[in-house]
Amino acid sequence: MQKTMEPFKLHILGCGSALPTLRHFPTIQVVECRGKLYMVDCGEGAQIQMRRARLSFNKVGHIFISHLHGDHCFGLIGMLSTFGLMGRTATMHVYADEALGPLLGMQLDFFCRDLGYKVDFHPVDTTRQQVIFEDRSLSVESLPLQHRMPCCGFLFREKPGMPHIRRDMIDFYNIPLSQIANIKSGADYVQPDGTVIANSRLVTPAELPRAYAYVGDTRYLPQLASRLHGVTTLYHEATYADDNEAMAEKYCHSTARQAAMVAREAGVDKLLLGHYSSRYEDENVLLQEAVSLFPHTQLTKELDVIDI
Fold this sequence. Notes:
Order of helices and strands: EEEHEHHEHEEEEEHHEEEEEHHEHEE
Radius of gyration: 22 Å
Distance between the termini: 22 Å
Low-confidence stretches: none
Helix content: 10-25%
Number of strands: 18
Number of helices: 9
Structural class: alpha/beta
């Protein structure tokens, strides 16, 4: 029997870079995993894009900010204010470099004195790869990057699921329902006459865990690939094409070709490009450069929904 995997999706709400355009919003993403929403960066327009994507404000419990350039965080205080206007009571968790803590505190004190819920700030050491959040189904790790200020990416890893019960074998051996939990946990079944039915006959393996890596603003880091093994889908900034490689180096960004080099070396299944410079009217030039090295590449655009 074909099993349906739990939802693990990426919602692209903004994929432009610092200079506003009529075609792209600044960086805003939402990771959807098992009914929960996790926001990754919160540029201007985050609230509008959430509504356009028909994503529930109430299901967002964690916001991860990669760095403190405005195109990645100027939408945060407005979003937090709106949560209060909507009557939120659940704690909101915000993860970012420690420098955001006092700034966010001052904004909340000035603009959101009667917020109605708690904002819990979690400082992130952007120089270390470490788990910064986890629950029963998901872990989130920081990924050290190199930009013009402290910056990190984020690695969302699905935790291994339980194997699937083979209903036909359960019925064949007349196994009582009280034993199902033990079997899913790996136990064999012992029949009343002492016959042992191996666990492998009673279950099919769980799906391989999926992983999504968000690599936002960074200069090209060849060593990053070693941190991304096992990643299913990689989003890597591709601000420039080869014609502006010197600009990429100067401003600590990456080209599309460099993003593809990281994806190829990491052995990911799929590469997503974004954070486009406003100088490109047609981002297909970026796609063509990346595809020449890594065929499983696609451009992102606003309101894309991508299965991890």
